[in-house]
Design goal:
mainly alpha; 3 helices; globular
Length: 63
């Protein structure tokens, strides 16, 4: 299980895009609209699925 203060392994482009947008930990993504993340260059369907699953493991979800 990915700790809430880390990002799961989603690939370098997606990780870089999230970090540039100010998201450095999984917990920060709880409640963020999927469309907001999908609009970031490098964050695609696979990364969103991984983020969904990692958040669900903590009882959280994207907005």
């Amino acid at each position: 299980m990915t700790p809430l203060d880390e990002l799961p392994r989603i690939g370098r482009p997606a990780t870089r895009a999230l970090q540039l947008a100010g998201y450095t930990g999984l917990g920060q993504l709880a409640g963020v609209p999927r469309a907001t993340l999908a609009a970031l260059h490098g964050v695609g369907p696979k990364a969103l699925r991984i983020l969904d699953e990692a958040l669900a493991a903590h009882g959280l979800r994207l907005g």
